[in-house]
Amino acid sequence: MTDPITIAIDGPAGSGKSSVSKEAARRLGFGYLDTGAAYRALAWHVLQHGADTSDAAAVVDAAGDFDYAISLDPDEYWVRVGDTSVTEAIREPRVSSAVSGVARVPVIREQVNVLFRRLVADSGRPGVIVEGRDITTVVAPDAPVRILLTAAPEVRAARRSAELTTEDAAAVAAALHKRDASDSQVVDFLTAAPGVTVVDSTDLDFAQTVDAVLDVVRSGTEGSR
Ligand SMILES: Nc1ncnc2c1ncn2[C@@H]1O[C@H](COP(=O)(O)OP(=O)(O)OP(=O)(O)O)[C@@H](O)[C@H]1O
Ligand SMILES: Nc1ccn([C@@H]2O[C@H](COP(=O)(O)O)[C@@H](O)[C@H]2O)c(=O)n1
Question: Which runs of E-coded beta strand occur in 65-209?
Answer without folding.
Answer: 68-70, 79-81, 84-85, 127-132, 145-150, 197-200
